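Review form for a predicted model. The reviewer records the input and the model, then writes brief findings.
Reviewer: anonymous (R2)
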Amino acid sequence: MDELLHIVIQRPRKRIALAVAEGEETFKALQLAVKHRIADFLLYGDEKIIRKHMAEGQFPLPAEWLIHAASHTEACEKAVHAVHAGEADVLMKGLVHTSTFVRTILQHGGLRSERLLSHVTIFQLPQLERLLFVTDSGMNIHPTLEEKREITQNVIDLAHRLGIPQPKVAILAAIETVNPQMPVTIDAAALAKMADRGQIQGGIVDGPLALDNAISPASVKEKGVLSPVAGEADILVVPTLEAGNTLYKALAYLADARVGALLVGAKRPIILPSRADHAETKFHSMLFALAQDY
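Model under review:
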């Protein structure tokens, strides 16, 4: 994260359209971004609440950054329009339900591409010397095989934009062998074969792999797992949103992780942290969005 901050500081400053720029943690993240001079902002939401945060934090912001919105839906609509119109470079979710925020993106259409939208969380963990990507942890509830293929391609493309040229991708299940009684293992094996045949490009994909033998060389050695990904995965593709969201929250709250969260598959970078995420997570999410070239 420190290296990423240094990279972003050196780049031309971009503008973030922050939908519903309210809430203590959101404002703290905004303060961090302004102090480090990584971005300018357009802040959409209840102007009285935003000004209250400014007064309480003794942190004045330019008046032209504040755009009043009478509701959360209106704030999201204005923020999405600003990015689509080129008035801002990056879209960010503030203190608003994910469903409201994503619905606005889908209904507006201007930021959508032909790609499936999917959620990625990125972790810096003290026990790993690399970043760890987890997907999908917040968007697609029970993806089909084709949707899993798109989710996998989305996260590989994100890794490329963040400087990882050939990421290793583990398709997770509870076990590392194919079992017809566990359909997710069949999907995992199919995704691995899709990568072999060029239907997924830019990464080394294997599965099914259990979490331990995806990231732990010791587990791989003990179990005798033969895989070009096992023990060295950069990316974990989970079978369902429940699994992804649980893993996301477990790492964020129990593993002393530094975290960022993005929505990928759109025409522009989209920052999608949880409303309950700490300011540092929201700030790190900004860094990951700003470090990308679109």
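Findings: The mean pLDDT is 95.
Further findings: Residues 145-161 form the longest helix (17 residues).
Recommendation: see findings above.
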